[in-house]
Amino acid sequence: MRNALDTLYKAGAALAALALIAIAAIVFTQVGLNLIDSISTALFGVQLTLLIPSYALFSGYALGWATFLSLGYGFRQAVHIRVTILEGRLPLAARRVTLTLVSILGAVAAGFMAWHFAHLTYESWLWGDKASGLVKLPLWIPQLGMSAGLIIFFISCLDTMVEMIRFGQSAALKPDTTVEDAVQ
Amino acid sequence: QTTWQMPTPYPEANFHTQNIKLFAEEIDKASNGALKIVVHPAGSLIKHAEIKNAVRSGQVEIGEFIISNLANEDPLFALDAVPFLAASYDESARLYAVSKEALGQKLGEQRMTALFSVPWPGQGLYTDREINTVEDIRGLKMRAYSPQTERLAQLLGAVPTQVEVPDLAQAFSTGRVNAMITSSSTGVNSSAWDFLTHFYDVSAFLPKNVVVVNQRAFDALSPELQQIVKDAAAAAEERGWKMSAEDHAAMRKILEEKGIKVSDGSEALNASLKEIGVTMGAEWAKEAGETGAALVAAFNAAPAQ
Amino acid sequence: MSDTLLSLILVGTLIASLALGVWVSMALFITGLIGMVLFSNAPLGSVLATNLWTSSSEWSLAALPLFIWMGEILLRSRVSRDLFEGLSPWLRSLPGGLAHTGIMASGIFAAVSGSSAATCATVAKVALPELQKRGYDEKLVLGAIAGSGTLGLMIPPSIILIVYGVAAEQSIARLFMAGVLPGLLIVALYMGYISLWSMLNPSKVPAKDPALPFITKLRRSGSLIPITLLIGGVIGSIYLGWASPTDSAAVGVVLSLLLSWWFGDLSWASFKDSAIAATMSSAMIAFIMAGAAFLTLSMGYSGLPARIAAWIGGMGLSNGTLIFALAIFFVGLGCFLDGVSIVVLTTAVLLPTILQAGIDPIWFGIFLVMVVEMGQLTPPVGLNLFVLQGMTGRDLWWLSKAALPFFLLLILALILITVMPQIVSVLPSLMYDL
Ligand code: NA
Ligand code: NA
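Predict the joint structure of the above. Result:
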């Protein structure tokens, strides 16, 4: 179970990193095409139609994937920041209570988000909503990836909550981790 | 007392927003404060792209958006954005008259009632150089933001280019784009004189904004209130069309004062553009199937007003 | 329920959930949810989902992760070390020495990036480890990076000036020009402060090195060539029209990868690590921004900021008093909302008052950016503080104390542009009103 969950979070983060790479690739390709076009115009006086249709739209969606699909892993690695000034001054028993409370709040809020985002995706599919612009892209496609991210995020919050309730501690709620710590 | 939240996409000073504020005031007055509409302009509550869905799902009761934003969902929503099909206020009014029912039905399928619809002034051609015939457009980079404008650029022999609105100034000054089709007021709002030289008032098309209300929210009103809303909507539509024409004249003057060379375009240019309009109208009708063909036929048969 | 009570409930919820130790992003969402329940009967879940969707998949934000990734790549290559070795011969004899590099790097980077968070994150990534290694006072250095990160908003390109330009119907090109001198003014104030502080606290600054002959300085600056090429490439791609300001972030990533490969620092492992670390950092920041967007939406439903703004506008104040009242109002809002939200929520309501008072809307845009910059540095919601907390593990309170002098310097800059509005207006009028 532990291994399966950790693999799930990692898979989400890997997909998120791919989405980040995709943003760079899409945008840089468009810049490269602009460059080819301006060279061709300057040297041969020929303007070319070189465009990735709706590249800005696709980059925006990839950003949504990069953010949401990495949430589960990020929360488990304690990358997402909390204000821990008061917490650090509490005795251990009291800290156990506050952290359990935090984990419950997190799980409830994440569950609420995941459920309603999935519903939004379903509605987009039901009504056939499409992006405006050059490409007739159904909105449920980008939304599906973000839904998956929020579901993984919800699972990671449940995981943390169960750990807090059963063991009184969770690696996801340790204070003051930096991103560098998490990656190493 | 009922309160409706109303997101609109355009800034406070825009004539569409001003018209909607008058609409809200009239309803407030006529209903003795029983129905209040809180207008949130400039996408400050809901961003433009989501206003339609926000009304559909009841997040807000009422909202405004530009119809052609939905062009990818159904060809009918693209009708008033077909270039050079209906290229004046009169023609645009005729096109609206023949398509109003179909439009209302399409929006009704998504649980919304269309209250009123007001056009933007005719979309003109902005360029960074002089244009006398369509030949002069050939090879220019033209901004494309929808399948229709992309196709128009192709038919003109221009190179369709994607530029987001905030990047317009940079794109024009660096030559990444040489021409765009947009309204006189958008030109003024983006200070087009900082990066452009010519405006050809060719009135390519008059895209319309529509104000829609969530069906359930509307049905929840008493019959008297419903009537008040309908009356105010009818008044707003009439007023809006006038405001649009006045706005166009005023904005055109500002463009001129700020040093942009404004003209209606040569006869040769307008004749060639009209031809392209016929092609695009036929292409649209083909895509829109039977309904589309019937609409275009009805438009062509309708008497001039 | 009165406006005062509503505001107190919201502020109370936010502070209580932050104090409890709830994640910053989640605390913003929870406060927003409570606001929605109190202010409206709109379907909560569907409002939240739509807002998550629009605020998280936006093109204008796409540059944020790319700039952060660029920082992660540079950090893993010798380019970042070279930046210091190249700058040090010039800065080493100034009081404060290399502590100025954070500010200079921010200023340069701000000319490439449109956001405060991206500027702050990138400079912190590259500059912080080097400065710590050299024994500079951490508080001074982190405060300077937090403060100068906000230059990303003032020195063009700037996301917030675009948002203001659209909302207020002002020329974005003019706004960009107007931001240049105030940006340089802030750089000068910060560098002046660091020099002064270093002279007053000689014990906390590494020993000053003797000045070098000019030729030696020049030769040692050779190590600046790669970073100059990188920044030149990014800025050049914008001004030659190959890339929009947002596109240029991708140019930065590709050039950084090329440099890193050229120096032999690029391996599969470092590539993978940099991508994952950038994804994690940017997701953390983006999720906080989504939370802030949702809280903003909830405030929009309440109409609260608009009512307060209308109230200030309706008091019939003299221009001086009006500016002063607005500054207080915006700094207060800046404690709880992020910059874009503040601009979107209040511009429409305040602009008529501003125009009526005869205040130049371009000047007002710069004023707004400056107060928004301050908001990046104030707790409990200060984006630059969050960025640095995520990178250093230092707590929010410590960081806001470190940033306090730079917050005060922004107030000084605000006073200066109020007394001498020419600082704002001279460049745009030179450029466009010939
Ligand atoms: Na900038
Ligand atoms: Na703040």
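Chain B touches chain C through 39 residues (CB under 8 Å).
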